[in-house]
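Feature request, filed as a ticket because there's no other form

It would be nice if the structure record came with a short human-readable summary line next to the tokens. Right now we just get the raw output. Example of a typical job, pasted below so the devs can see what we mean:
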Amino acid sequence: MALLFLIRHGLTDQTGRRLSGWTPGVHLSEPGRTQADALVFRFAQIPLSAIYSSPLERCRETAAPLAAAKGLAVRVRKELGEVDYGDWTGRPLAQLARTKLWKSVQQNPSQVTFPGGESFLQVQGRVLHAVGEIARTHPRGNVAVLSHGDAIRLLVSHLAGAHLDAFQRVVIDTASVSVVALGSGPPRVLRVNDTGSLDAFGGRRRPGGNVKG
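Raw output as currently delivered:
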């Protein structure tokens, strides 16, 4: 099975304040660059077959130190990009929280299509398609996948067997790593929102995605 390390990008100046979406030119802040550098040490014991990233700057910048340390190119896939929030893009979260649609986003996200943008169902579908292809390309490899909070939450909740309406219960912090095993048989969710040591994954993997440290 392929072992995929799902990494949310590091902090930006807009994180937690505005809905950046696909806004161009959103770069890592100084703390975000520190988080990206820290990934090099967290992955020091883990051989990687490949690194994939959302095309947005904050993800590619998070991937860059790790790619340099591993001697790998960053492979960009558009399907790993952030939700297209349409007319909501760039607006303050505090302002959006006062809209009628916000309640549905939190409680019934499966029914939500952002005005002028995507639905959560569309996002989940494209991210699942991308990671499925990545797993088939690297069937026995360890692969880092850089993406965004909502995209990773939608993916992890689906792989865990949860309904889309439950994805808001999953927390994915900046620069956190969630680990999933994909291949023959059911998917395995091995870590969620991890910000600590990943050394356990540096050992030989047992069949089915378990690890032997």
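Something like this underneath would help us a lot:
The domain at 2-199 is CATH 3.40.50.1240 (Rossmann fold).
The longest strand covers residues 2-8.
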